[in-house]
Write a structure and sequence with these properties.
This protein is α/β, with parallel strands linked by helices and 306 residues long. The chain has eleven helices and eleven strands. The strands form three sheets. It has a seven-stranded mixed beta sheet with strand order 5-4-3-6-7-11-10, with helices on both faces. It has a two-stranded antiparallel sheet with strand order 1-2.
C-alpha cells in the first residue's frame, strides 16, 4: 500500500501490518469523510509527495526540525486515487502489529469501549487506528502545533470522539488528567525526551489503576542496563538510546512492575506495562533528592490531596 512514487525507508516490516493499514483505510476514507474536498485542501501542504520529498532532504541533512519542516506522519490511502505521504511510512501499522499481535494486548480487553490517549500523535493516524479498533474515546497530544492541526483535520473529517491538545508531555496537567485513561499509546516519543523517568511517572499518573502503557522507541542492543547519549547531532533530533534492560528497569521503578519487551530489532523496540496502584519509587522522594515539581504533585495526588 505504498503511495505512488514513494519508497519506504522507515520502519521494521511486519507480516500483520497490512491488516491494520486496511482497517484504517476501510473506516476512514474519502467516501465516508465529512467535507472530503475541504479535508484534502487542508492537508495538501503537509501530505503531498512534494512536501514529503522536501522533508526527506532536510532529515537526511539533519537540517532544521519538525517545526521548520512540518510534514504528514503516516502513509494513507484515502481511496479514489488519493494518497497522503507520511514521513514515518507505515510505522503506525507495524507498531500496532507488534503491540497487538505479538505484545499480548487484547483488543477486547484493552481497547473496545475504553478511553485511550496517544502521546506524540503527529497527524492522528494512530488515534484513528484505536478508534477503528472500537475505542470509545481517543485523545491526542503533541507538542508541535502543526501536528495538532493535522490531527484536528482528521478528527473533524471522521468525527473522532476525543480532544487534541498541543503541549509537551512534561506540560500535561496531571491534576486534570489524574487516572483518566485505560490505555496510553506512545509511538516514537521517549527517545526524543531528555528525562525518561519523569516522563514515565507522568504517564503512570494519567492511567487508571490496571491501565496499560504501550510504546515504541529507539533502543541499543541488549547487554547492559544503560542509555547511550545521542544528542542533537543525530538526524531525527533524538537524545537517548536505552537498552531493553534500561527501559524495563525504568518502567519498573516508575510504576509498571510487569514491564516487558515485546520485540527488539533493527535498533528499535516495543514495550508494554500495566500500571499498579503503588506510588512509583521515583515519585516517593524518600532520599530527599531534587526532582521536578510534577513528581511532588503526583505524590500529593496519590495521597488523596488535590
Amino acid at each position: 500500500m505504498t503511495p505512488p512514487g514513494k519508497t519506504r525507508y522507515i520502519g521494521a516490516p511486519h507480516a500483520s501490518a497490512a491488516h491494520f493499514e486496511q482497517l484504517v483505510m476501510a473506516k476512514f476514507n474519502l467516501a465516508n469523510a465529512h467535507e472530503p474536498k475541504k479535508f484534502l485542501e487542508r492537508v495538501r501542504p503537509w501530505a503531498s509527495l512534494d512536501a514529503y520529498q522536501k522533508w526527506l532532504v532536510a532529515y537526511r541533512q539533519n537540517a532544521g526540525s519538525f517545526l521548520d519542516h512540518a510534514v504528514w506522519g503516516a502513509d494513507r490511502n484515502l481511496g479514489d486515487g488519493h494518497h497522503l505521504y507520511g514521513a514515518m511510512d507505515d510505522r503506525y501499522a507495524t507498531n500496532a502489529a507488534r503491540v497487538f499481535v505479538a505484545g499480548g494486548l487484547d483488543v477486547l480487553k484493552h481497547v473496545v469501549g475504553k478511553k485511550a490517549c496517544v502521546i506524540g500523535a503527529w497527524d492522528g493516524t494512530e488515534c484513528l487506528l484505536l478508534r477503528a479498533l472500537d475505542a470509545a474515546e481517543v485523545d491526542a497530544v503533541d507538542e508541535v502545533p502543526a501536528f495538532c492541526d493535522m490531527a484536528t483535520a482528521q478528527y473533524v473529517a471522521w468525527h473522532i470522539p476525543g480532544i487534541v491538545t498541543t503541549c509537551s508531555l512534561y506540560e500535561i496537567d496531571v491534576l486534570s488528567n489524574w487516572q483518566t485513561y485505560d490505555l496510553l499509546y506512545v509511538p516514537g516519543v521517549l527517545y526524543h525526551l531528555t528525562d525518561l523517568p519523569t516522563a514515565l511517572v507522568i504517564l503512570w499518573s494519567m492511567l487508571k489503576p490496571g491501565g496499560v502503557l504501550a510504546f515504541e522507541s529507539v533502543a541499543d542492543p541488549r547487554g547492559a542496563c544503560s542509555a547511550r547519549y545521542l544528542g542533537a547531532s543525530v538526524p531525527g533530533w533524538n537524545w537517548w538510546a536505552p537498552t531493553p534492560e534500561c527501559y524495563e528497569a525504568s518502567m519498573r521503578d516508575c510504576g509498571f512492575p510487569d514491564a516487558r519487551t515485546v520485540e527488539h530489532a533493527h535498533g528499535r523496540g516495543w514495550w508494554v506495562g500495566t500500571r499498579v496502584e503503588r506510588l512509583p519509587a521515583l515519585a516517593s522522594g524518600a532520599a530527599g533528592f531534587s526532582r521536578p515539581d510534577v513528581l511532588r504533585t503526583i505524590k500529593r495526588l496519590q495521597g488523596g490531596e488535590r
